[in-house]
Specification:
Pnp Oxidase, Chain A, six-stranded antiparallel β-barrel, 3 helices, Pyridox_Oxase_N, Pyridoxamine 5'-phosphate oxidase family protein, Split_barrel_FMN-bd
């Protein structure tokens, strides 16, 4: 459990549509890309496609790194399955609100069962805020 002040900063900073850099490993080479993400309770949630390069890389090695807005972290990524599966309904509803600006812009095919929910469970990180450094262990 991280200290409450750090959790509050994470929620304020990333508990909405946030662009983060997500790094995976492609063989021995790092591969990074920007993704839209939403933070809640020690994890980031991303809508993506199950057959994407990032998901193939995560399938081989679920260890990932992220960076965004004075925050870096490591985590474990997992495919939670089809975005609108019953078990994902509550998070899908929260993401639809958080990502409202672009959610229905046609970029994603929500009828495709390969449109999935990716969860990045954070393991450790470094958060900076107003001169305070928070070393985080989730």
């Amino acid at each position: 459990m991280i200290e409450p002040a750090a959790e509050l900063i994470l929620e304020e900073r990333f508990g909405k549509d946030s662009v983060i850099a997500l790094a995976t490993l492609d063989g021995g080479q790092p591969s990074a890309r920007f993704v839209n993400a939403y933070y809640e309770d020690g994890a980031f949630y991303v809508i993506t496609h199950a057959l994407s390069d990032k998901m193939r890389q995560i399938g081989r090695n679920p260890a990932v790194g992220i960076a965004a807005d004075w925050f870096t972290a490591h985590g474990v990524a997992e495919n939670l399955g089809y975005l609108f599966a019953a078990e994902n309904a509550a998070m899908a509803a929260r993401l639809k609100l958080a990502f409202a600006q672009w959610f229905d812009n046609g970029h994603n095919d929500y009828a495709d069962p390969n449109t999935i929910l990716l969860r990045i469970r954070l393991t450790d990180g470094l958060l900076l805020s107003h001169g305070t450094r928070y070393a985080l262990a989730f």
